[in-house]
Amino acid sequence: MAEADPSIFPALSVVPERIVRDEAELDALLKSAREPFLVRGLVASWPLVKAGLKSNSAARTYLVDRARPVQFAISLGPPEHNGRMFYDEEMAMNFRMGKGKLSEIFAGFEKHEAQPGAPTAYLGSIDIRQHFDGVAEENPPPLGDRQPRESIWIGTATRIAAHNDFPDNLACCAAGKRRFTLFPPDQFKNLYLGPLDNTPAGRPISMVDFDAPDYERFPRFADALEHAQVAVLEPGDAVFIPSMWWHHVEGLAEFNILVNYWWRDVPSFAGDPQTALNHAILALRDLPDKDKAIWRDLFDHYVFENGPDSIDHIPAGSRGILEPLDSASASRLRAFLLRMLNS
User: Domain JmjC, which positions (predicted)?
Assistant: First the structure.
């Protein structure tokens, strides 16, 4: 088993490695695992991985040849930030956004590659099927009949602050080298999250600089590190990140490509829990404590416990939204909520 890279935190545990011989074994692991695991060489047969092993230029050529004539969004950061995509002193983003054809963007990569003082360049969460022809088909996800969201992440050496995602995530290193530092969901208090609404990419992030932790400002971060796990991915390797696990992601090479897959084992009509949290802040957070206690009991009764005592006394067929939801009833509930929010 590979050892954790000692350059950040020397005592961290490593993400366990698993041997997977076929999609059926991976499927079984994904269905049962609620903690991260690493699979070496899972996607080593991908043409994109093979191109990247030849050279950075070969990987870029592979993608440019298959890129659609559409605009690609790119984030650009100054050299002095050392690849950290974060906030500035005013809590605005410390990078600027641009757009261009992939061939033009990659020309900039070629120009600055291996040069000292080069800017940070990062194409994040690019939808593969919307931006490329053939890449998804030639580099298929080993996920059986799941229908994940397929994204590609391309950049120079970068540091992406710890964040989490609601879906499960399989992240595959296609070129370069990636280091993931992972934390269980319950460590959010020890990661000192930033704003919920002003975020670099839609999810709240840890305010801790992992390269230089300020333990006076963030003392509980030391507790988070006791639960952390590290995975270092080479080309062809993949790491499974379960739903809501926090992950700090670094591109360690001068040019890096990651392909990731998000999926949810819940119906497609289900709502977004983050939206519910945001609305709870609007509706509940500033209530008097005695009122919040009442609503906490109601949430436990109808949402978190959701036991038979909440519905058995109501005739079947007359329980409204307390009935199990389907696509039709979820659509009606969503429309009702929108009317209420806009009233």
Answer: 112-280
